[in-house]
From TrEMBL, chain A:
<keyword id="KW-0349">Heme</keyword>
<keyword id="KW-0472">Membrane</keyword>
<keyword id="KW-0812">Transmembrane</keyword>
<dbReference type="InterPro" id="IPR036909">
    <property type="entry name" value="Cyt_c-like_dom_sf"/>
</dbReference>
<dbReference type="InterPro" id="IPR036257">
    <property type="entry name" value="Cyt_c_oxidase_su2_TM_sf"/>
</dbReference>
<feature type="domain" description="Cytochrome oxidase subunit II transmembrane region profile">
    <location>
        <begin position="24"/>
        <end position="121"/>
    </location>
</feature>
<dbReference type="InterPro" id="IPR045187">
    <property type="entry name" value="CcO_II"/>
</dbReference>
TrEMBL record, chain B:
<feature type="transmembrane region" description="Helical">
    <location>
        <begin position="139"/>
        <end position="166"/>
    </location>
</feature>
<keyword id="KW-1003">Cell membrane</keyword>
<dbReference type="InterPro" id="IPR024791">
    <property type="entry name" value="Cyt_c/ubiquinol_Oxase_su3"/>
</dbReference>
<keyword id="KW-0812">Transmembrane</keyword>
<comment type="similarity">
    <text>Belongs to the cytochrome c oxidase subunit 3 family.</text>
</comment>
<feature type="transmembrane region" description="Helical">
    <location>
        <begin position="69"/>
        <end position="88"/>
    </location>
</feature>
<dbReference type="GO" id="GO:0004129">
    <property type="term" value="F:cytochrome-c oxidase activity"/>
</dbReference>
TrEMBL record, chain D:
<feature type="transmembrane region" description="Helical">
    <location>
        <begin position="51"/>
        <end position="74"/>
    </location>
</feature>
<dbReference type="GO" id="GO:0009486">
    <property type="term" value="F:cytochrome bo3 ubiquinol oxidase activity"/>
</dbReference>
<dbReference type="InterPro" id="IPR005171">
    <property type="entry name" value="Cyt_c_oxidase_su4_prok"/>
</dbReference>
<dbReference type="GO" id="GO:0005886">
    <property type="term" value="C:plasma membrane"/>
</dbReference>
<feature type="transmembrane region" description="Helical">
    <location>
        <begin position="25"/>
        <end position="45"/>
    </location>
</feature>
<dbReference type="GO" id="GO:0015078">
    <property type="term" value="F:proton transmembrane transporter activity"/>
</dbReference>
<keyword id="KW-1003">Cell membrane</keyword>
Length: 357, 206, 606, 106
């Protein structure tokens, strides 16, 4: 009943997939298949090794399967009773031992890499220390050595080890920069803080994601990791520490201070960790991690965000500025907390918060 | 249960609990249930062990626990276990009255254990050690409370079985129930051995 | 379903079904309930896929999406897959071991109704508007009192607690049944493979479900009584929940797959007309998988931060499971080898199972490589892995088993044409949906995302995946049509409708009478019914008058239930050591396996 | 295993295994002694903590063994599956205790 053609057809999805694999490895700044650093590279090497072994296993099984189905299918009217075989020692030993060997080949480098990637550079003066705190639904990056805090956009120097210490401010999230290396949970509470080191040999921007279900906007909890050269990094640190001017317009300033700085911090004003530090928002690549500033201008994105943050990121913690209407297209309305004028002023002011580095 | 297993050939066999397939099924099934109970209590123990140092501002174990009281509770339960052994012996000798006496002793000891535990919990709560105090207190009350609930259930169950014996007498139907309840009772004792070791004694040690 | 009219002798009507303690009817109840929940879970899956068909879609909102995945995962695993397995075990196990019922018929019915109540309670949440949304794993703190407001998660906790107790009862019942109720002569090493896998599955249930019970109690206490098990602010520990969930959760996935392994063993052997290859190594592999299954839970927690020692240990332990599983795969292939394979719907599903499951299994081994799992974890690669083993494994297995045992359960054949249409639409739809998800994961798509930004390379693959899901839906609908058509068909079915049946259930009428076996069978070998048929055929061929009585191999017709136990006591005896059964070749595995079977002391009839 | 019971039932004349209370009383006394040792080890105080732990755990394990074997008849014939059930439960519990000790906090 099943002829050769049908058998081939079964393989079609596999072949289509293989073709896809060859043609599309995803974006260079996002895919685990185009590693951009030694950590991701080591993981990728293990992935290739395991895929090769698995391909071998799959090919052997498929080959036997197809052969058997063609060779031993029942012909019409065939009523012979096949020989009733109980088993076969040699064969059974073969298919016990061969997988064990394959697993040994896979297991040894696995153990090596497990220990290799768990190295701790927190005492290494050459390494940059970063404390990551995750929040529903944004990322906070603190550089304890430099006394600065930023959000959504991680800036790191190339060529140095970056040692992360990760914890969560609320629920469990997971910190993941696929093309640089993955991934570690950020746990809530003391006693379960995690460590992870990464390296960024190339300059560039890499996409980061939250990889643990953390609420409605888990899907949108993106961040960026921007690797710059050491000189540029130093300039950025200096710029982050420079004083920040408040909005010139008094009305805007008053609104900004009373309605925004209750949670946010900018420059040396430090309101703690309730919301992203806004120092240098204007030069970030995105607003809120997902509104790309190369698709729309920063100012427009800021306006969108400030006026309906809840529509953009359902359930995030920036509520009372936009209305508290349930999200969904059209459901969020423009800000009620700010007048049109204040909104424009604040957006313009924030868009102007650019750092030179 | 089918009708023909009430009496085998008119007289009770030596081990009436194992005389019928139903009885043997019951015993086997009950042992499997105890395997599940082992894992159940094991998980509670694991949670307790993981959280036992998380006392926050609440009382710590070595302040809280009073060994004499725990020792008394331990003795009560141990003796009650012996009583239920004797009950099963009486069952095997078909001495129904003796069996009932031992069962009643078992129950009474179980009740006094419960009384002691309630008194103990009461004292702790008055010392500021409530379910909500800390992770330690939550896991303590859940573990010890689960055990207490098992004792309470055992008391109730054996009580009902006594009533049934009075009504129906010792038969191949009632015997497995008595036997199984005795095994249950020992199991509760075994769990208690670990509770006094892990919770109380180790709590004192630190 | 009117087809089961014949299973009842005297009464009919609703009350009979509500109060029945007959394992065959309870099996049908499980099938109806599990089947309905499968449709519900499938509908949820379709909604998930529609939401993900294109970037920034707004078909359902973020909240609803999280509710959908949570309910889909929970419903499918606890309310669809497990009950359908319970359906098969209820329908088949007592027949396969030659028993008149299970060990505890009343508990059997209690277990069903408890499961059903739990399932209904869980789904009431849809109507109450407070729906669990923290994933089927309900990780804290998201599912805890502080961040999981409302009562959604409470439905999850209560529903699973109640359903879980029903499952535990079932597990104990089937363990006791298989240990104590086997027909005379059926030693452990003569048990059909399906019976073996159910035995081991039941053991897994008995030892894994209490862990879940405690986890659910602890989280309930946290949520309802302000306890602090997982409240990180008050000294609790969120990682503890992950451990508890997975100590249960990993054995749970083998609870799902082992019965499917059993079904495949039966079906492959029947439709290739060959004895199961390497029976004793199959048994040993099953036991080993179950045992190892308890030692690998932390492979779901590689990224939790347990440290290199734990990650290394659990990596290796997990990989080891590939070895016994591989033994099974190759044994199936070599059962087919040299056989005479006929392609019925049942055997198509079984044959489709093998390559599909292997693909899911090998991605499992890839996930077991801890450093690489840092990349795979919580991405669509994992989603692809587990749907390959669950849908491509377990659901294929259930479909196979249903097509195979349908005539025995209902006394009606399923239509073969429709059956094959079910297979091909479901099979193609399945691979279309899930194959591509491997790549989605690899190129950076996390799982449990309600939407995704355009321009990340996810768009086409997601669209393809959704199309596949619809095909699976069509396949399922064809199956439902088939059921209805077969119910309308009045043609009775032979005792052994596939003609190549090998185990005892095929020696009695379809559907079996209430008491199953008129006379209790005397089992002289593995594949008892097949060997009996062969013997008769040889006798016929030799020109002697063949015995046509289908009960020719039953023991003394006057044997009463009670007697047989006494008489068979010695024959069933299993001891830790001793001689192997006379006919079974001394097998490699038997040197390791503790269960050696002593030769039956029963009088052999010529 | 269950069928042993049937063998026993069919031969009622065979001398029975747990006749008389002596064994049970011995088990009781053993349990008593083990309990007292454990309590004494803690009350005495001033012993090295690790050492106390070892004493406590071994006393508990011994006592459980005594009770399972004598009072719950696990050592008797026909308890193969009961023993397997308990032993496997203990294995699962053991892994969970390891988990609680090493992999919950770090
Ligand atoms: C039926 C269910 C089922 C089955 C059978 C399996 C089987 C296996 N699973 Fe899977 N798994 C799940 C259901 C299942 N899984 C689910 C539901 C999840 C996700 C839960 C969640 O997070 O929501 C999951 C997640 C999961 C993870 C965690 C991933 C993550 O979240 O990061 C891992 C990691 O190790 C894993 C591994 C394995 C392995 C090694 C097997 C092995 O048993 C597979 C063994 C089989 C084979 C290997 C194929 C046959 C063998 C041969 C032909 C021999 C030769 C082979 C070799 C030498 C390789 N699984
Ligand atoms: C037994 C288990 C099982 C089964 C059978 C399935 C079956 C399917 N699953 Fe599911 N799935 C899980 C267990 C299972 N799944 C689990 C545990 C998760 C993780 C949840 C979590 O993250 O917490 C998951 C998650 C999951 C996701 C990821 C969600 C996410 O991470 O965001 C997706 C996405 O594609 C998906 C799709 C599907 C599809 C298309 C099917 C298809 O095979 C379904 C086919 C069936 C049908 C299509 C039914 C058709 C019926 C009708 C059309 C009739 C309807 C009519 C009425 C109700 C009257 N599943
Ligand atoms: Cu944060 Cu997902
Ligand atoms: Cu697993």
């Amino acid at each position: 009943m099943m002829n050769r053609w049908r058998v081939l057809k079964r393989l079609l999805p596999l072949m289509a997939g293989m073709a896809l694999l060859l043609s599309a490895c995803g974006r260079d700044d996002l895919s685990t298949l185009s590693p951009q650093g030694p950590v991701a590279q080591k993981q990728f090497d293990l992935m290739t090794l395991s895929i090769s072994i698995m391909a071998l296993v799959v090919v052997v099984v498929f080959a036997i399967c197809i052969y058997v189905l063609i060779r031993f299918r029942r012909r019409k009217g065939d009523n012979t009773i096949p020989k009733q075989v109980e088993g076969n020692h040699t064969l059974e030993i073969i298919w016990t031992v061969v997988p064990i060997i394959l697993l040994l080949i896979l297991g040894v480098p696995t153990i090596n890499t497990v220990f290799g990637l768990s190295k701790d550079y927190s005492k290494d003066p050459e390494a940059v220390q970063v404390t990551v705190t995750s929040h529903q639904y944004w990322w906070e990056f603190e550089y304890p050595e430099y006394g600065i805090k930023t959000a959504q956009e991680l800036i790191v120097p190339t060529g140095r080890k970056i040692q992360f210490k990760l914890a969560s401010g609320d629920v469990t999230h997971a910190f993941w920069i696929p093309s640089i290396g993955g991934k570690i949970d950020t746990n809530a509470g003391l006693g379960t803080t995690n460590k992870l080191y990464l390296e960024f040999p190339n300059e560039g921007v890499f996409r980061g994601k939250c990889a643990e279900l953390c609420g409605p906007s888990h899907a949108l909890m993106d961040f960026k990791a921007k690797a710059v050269n050491q000189a540029s990094f130093d300039r950025w640190v200096a710029a982050m520490k420079a004083p920040v001017a408040m909005p010139a317009d008094e009305k805007v300033k008053a609104a900004f201070e009373s309605k925004c700085l209750t949670c946010h911090a900018i420059g040396e004003t430090n309101a703690g960790s309730a919301a992203p530090n806004l120092t240098g928002v204007g030069s970030r690549l995105t607003v809120g991690g997902i509104l790309y500033n190369d698709e729309k201008s920063v100012e427009e994105n800021l306006k969108d965000w400030i006026s309906h943050a809840q529509t953009i990121k359902p359930g995030n913690q920036m509520p009372d500025v936009s209305t508290n209407v349930k999200y969904g297209p059209g459901k969020g309305t423009t800000a009620t907390g700010l007048t049109e004028e204040e909104l424009d002023g604040i957006a313009k002011y924030l868009a102007g918060q650019k750092l030179e580095y | 249960m089918s009708a023909h297993d009430h009496q085998l050939d008119g007289h009770l066999p030596h081990e009436p609990e194992k005389a019928t397939l139903e009885g043997r099924n019951k015993i086997l099934g009950f042992w499997l249930f105890l395997g599940a109970e082992t894992v159940l209590f094991g998980t509670l123990f694991a949670a307790f062990i993981a959280l036992r140092h998380q006392t926050l501002d609440g009382p710590t174990p070595d302040h809280l626990f009073e060994l004499p009281m725990v020792f008394a509770a331990t003795m009560i339960l141990l003796v009650s276990s012996l009583a239920s052994v004797f009950a099963v012996q009486a069952l095997h000798q078909h001495k129904v009255k003796q069996m009932i006496v031992w069962l009643i002793i078992t129950i009474l000891l179980g009740l006094s254990f419960l009384g002691l535990e309630i008194y103990e919990f009461n004292t702790y709560v008055s010392e500021g050690h409530k379910l909500t105090t800390s992770a330690f207190s939550s896991s303590f009350y859940t573990l010890v409370g689960f055990h207490g609930a098992h004792v309470a259930f055992g008391v109730l169950w054996i009580g009902l079985l006594i009533a049934q014996i009075f009504k129906k007498g010792l038969t191949v139907v009632t015997a497995p129930k008595i036997y199984v309840s005795a095994i249950y009772w020992h199991f509760i004792d075994v769990v208690w051995v670990f509770i006094f070791t892990v919770v109380y004694l180790m709590g004192k040690v630190g | 379903m009117a087809a089961h009219a014949h299973t009842v002798k005297r009464y009919r009507g609703l009350m009979d079904w509500l109060t029945t303690v007959d394992h065959k009817k309870i099996g049908i109840l499980y099938l109806i309930a599990g089947g309905l929940f499968f449709l519900v879970g499938g509908l949820e899956a379709i909604l998930i896929r529609i939401q993900l068909i294109k970037p920034m879609n707004n078909f359902v909102g973020a909240d609803t999406f999280n509710q959908l995945i949570t309910m889909h995962g929970t419903t499918m695993i606890f309310l669809a897959a497990m009950p359908m397995l319970f359906a098969l075990m209820n329908a088949v196990i007592p027949l396969q071991i030659g028993a008149r019922d299970v060990a505890f018929p009343f508990l059997n019915s209690l277990g069903f109704w408890t499961f059903f109540a739990g399932g209904v309670l869980l789904n009431i949440s849809w109507f109450a508007g407070d729906i669990p949304d923290a994933g089927w794993t309900s990780y804290v703190p998201l599912a805890g009192p502080t961040y999981g407001g409302g009562h959604g998660v409470d439905y999850y906790l209560m529903g699973l607690q109640i359903a879980g107790i029903g499952t535990l009862i079932g597990g104990i019942n089937f363990m006791a049944t298989i240990i104590n109720m086997r027909a005379p002569g059926m030693s452990f090493m003569r048990m059909p493979m399906f019976t073996w896998t159910i035995f081991i599955t039941s053991a897994l249930i008995v030892f894994a479900f209490p862990v879940l019970t405690v986890g659910l109690v602890a989280l309930t206490f946290d949520r309802l009584f302000q306890a602090n098990f997982f409240e990180t602010g008050n000294g609790g520990n969120a990682v503890l929940w992950e451990h508890i969930f997975w100590v249960f959760g990993h054995p749970e996935v083998y609870i799902l797959i082992l019965p499917a392994f059993g079904v495949i063993s039966e079906v492959i052997s029947t439709f290739s007309r060959k004895r199961l290859f390497g029976y004793s190594s199959m048994v040993f592999a099953t036991v080993l998988i179950a045992f190892l299954g308890f030692m690998v839970w932390a492979h779901h927690m590689f990224t939790t931060g347990l440290g290199p020692v734990a990650n290394g240990l659990f990596s290796i332990a997990t990989m080891l499971i590939a070895v016994p599983t591989g033994v099974k795969i190759f044994n199936w292939l070599f059962t087919l080898w040299g056989g005479s394979i006929s392609f019925t719907s049942a055997s198509l599903f079984a044959i489709g199972f093998i390559p599909t499951f292997v693909m899911g299994g090998v991605t499992g081994v890839m996930l077991a490589v801890a450093p690489a799992d840092f990349q795979y974890h919580d991405t669509y690669f994992v989603v692809a892995h587990f749907h390959y083993v669950i849908v491509g494994g377990l659901i294929f297995g259930i479909f196979s088993g249903l097509h195979y045992w349908w005539p025995k359960m209902f006394g009606r054949m399923l239509n073969e044409k429709l059956g094959k249409a079910t297979f091909w639409t479901f099979f193609i739809g399945f691979h279309l949906t899930f194959f591509i998800q491997h790549f989605l994961g690899l190129i950076g798509m996390p799982r449990r995302v309600w939407t995704y930004l355009p321009g990340q390379g996810f768009d086409t693959m997601n669209a393809v995946s959704t199309v596949g899901a619809f095909l699976m839906g069509i396949g399922t609908i064809i199956f439902v049509v088939n059921v209805i058509v077969s119910a309308a068909n009045k043609k009775p079915v032979a005792d052994d409708p596939w003609e190549d049946g090998r185990s005892l259930e095929w020696s009695i009428p379809s559907p079996p009478p209430e008491y199953n076996f008129k006379q209790l069978p005397l089992v002289r070998s593995y594949d008892a019914w097949w060997n009996e048929k062969q013997k008769r055929q040889r006798r016929n061929a030799a020109g002697r008058a063949g015995r046509t009585d289908p009960y020719a191999f039953a023991i003394d017709p006057s044997a009463r239930h009670e007697h047989r136990i006494v008489r068979s006591g010695a024959g069933l005896h299993v001891r830790p050591s001793g001689r192997c059964h006379r006919r079974a070749r001394r097998h490699l595995w038997q040197h390791v396996l503790p269960l050696r079977v002593r030769r039956s002391r029963l009088p052999h009839r010529a | 295993m269950a069928n042993d019971h049937s063998a026993a039932a069919s031969e009622p004349k065979r001398r029975h295994r747990h006749e008389g209370p002596q064994k049970h009383v011995v088990a009781f006394v053993l349990s008593l002694v083990l309990t007292i040792i454990a309590f004494a080890a803690v009350s005495a105080g001033e012993i090295n903590t690790t050492f106390t732990y070892i004493i406590l755990v071994s006393m508990a394990l011994l006592q459980v063994f005594v009770q399972l074997a004598f009072w719950m008849h696990l050592k008797d014939r026909g308890h193969l599956f009961a023993t397997m059930g308990i032993v496997f439960g203990i294995i699962v519990v053991f892994t969970m205790v390891i988990m609680a000790l090493y992999w919950v906090w770090w």
